[in-house]
Amino acid sequence: MSRSQSRIVGLVVVAMLLAVPYFLEEFWLQMGLFAMAAAIAAIGLTLLSGVAGQLSLAHAFYIAVGAYGYCYLAGDSGSDPGLDLPSGLNLPPVLALIGAVLLAGVAGALFSPIAGRLRGIYLGLASIGLVFVGQHILRAASGVTGGFNGRDAEPFSVLGFTFDATPMNVLGVEYHQLEKLWYLGLLFVAAGAWYAHSILGSRPGRALEAIRDSEVAAAVMGVNVPVYRGAAFVVSSMYAGLGGVFIALAYQRIVPDTFGFLYSLDFVVMIVLGGVASVRGAIVGAAVVICLPQLLDHYATSLPLVAAAGDDGLQPTDASRFLYGGAVVAVLIFSPGGLAGLARRLSPRHTKESTA
């Protein structure tokens, strides 16, 4: 496929994504929002684990920092003690978003000294501790997090435009909250993918790849290994924080159980399925992992072996984990580059080069 053809395909895909809210029902839009939120965070884990080669199983912790950080910074100050609501700083949503992303980055920076001393599976095991510590804090600090009951997320607004349930009429077409958030999510995913590609094509990206391949060789070439390893954690955490903010906006209410250890494992599956060093693969992997259980639940009554939620039998969530667990094994055996690597191998350009 030539460059001009790739651009045409890209424009067609963009046009389709922009037109989606005109045609899809609420279920599909909601599922798309969840996939977008996961895609943003998955790009960050791709930079950390796929590009820099640092295993982290704490991504759910940083996502929670972003989600709860936004809810606290943008939330009401809790001036009425009789309602027993979690407190907040009542900042403008834009400032709350920026602050939540920065909080997640600070959390990553605080963990980076530990990450600098550990490698491989030991780093992964150490990072798991963050998830359990985070779960305890989210349940115990009820004045900020709402405890087990969680807390609501303030609608996002910028320049007087609010992404809430108030209908907005544009050229005779009504846009509700899901439609508004759809376009906000597309903007966040596009910006996150663009920035990640910019990193990969720059000197810091090449330095991170050198560290992944051999830290000794990277140090010999003049790469400041501890600084770059720490920077990778900070950037990855900030991506997770932004993903957490959008998760809060999409769910409208967040609870601690959302950000458990299994959620961290889901992100590892996303980048493995998509391709551990591929930004596009991370987006595709996020869509697969997030959408599959919801599709199985939606069509449970029409599928064999899958029971509807609440009925006896194989639940949609468990069925989806079996399916993409098998997919991960298949990818590792037959296509280590993930879906992105498979797409490159099947592309006409690769076929011509291999037969030349």
UniProtKB/TrEMBL annotation:
Q: Which organism is it from?
A: Paraconexibacter sp. AEG42_29
Molecular function terms in GO for this entry?
A: branched-chain amino acid transmembrane transporter activity
Task: Provide a GO CC annotation, any one.
Answer: plasma membrane
Q: Which UniProt keywords apply?
A: Cell membrane, Membrane, Transmembrane, Transmembrane helix
Question: Which superkingdom heads the taxonomic lineage of this protein's source?
Answer: Bacteria
**Parts of the chain that traverse the membrane:** 7-24, 30-48, 55-75, 95-114, 121-138, 182-200, 231-251, 263-296, 322-343
Give coiled-coil spans as residue ranges.
Answer: none
Kindly give the InterPro entries that the UniProt entry links to this protein. ABC_transp_permease (IPR001851), LivM-like (IPR043428)
Q: What is this protein called?
A: Branched-chain amino acid ABC transporter permease
The UniProt entry lists membrane topology as: Multi-pass membrane protein
Location of the protein in the cell: Cell membrane
| A Pfam family hit | BPD_transp_2
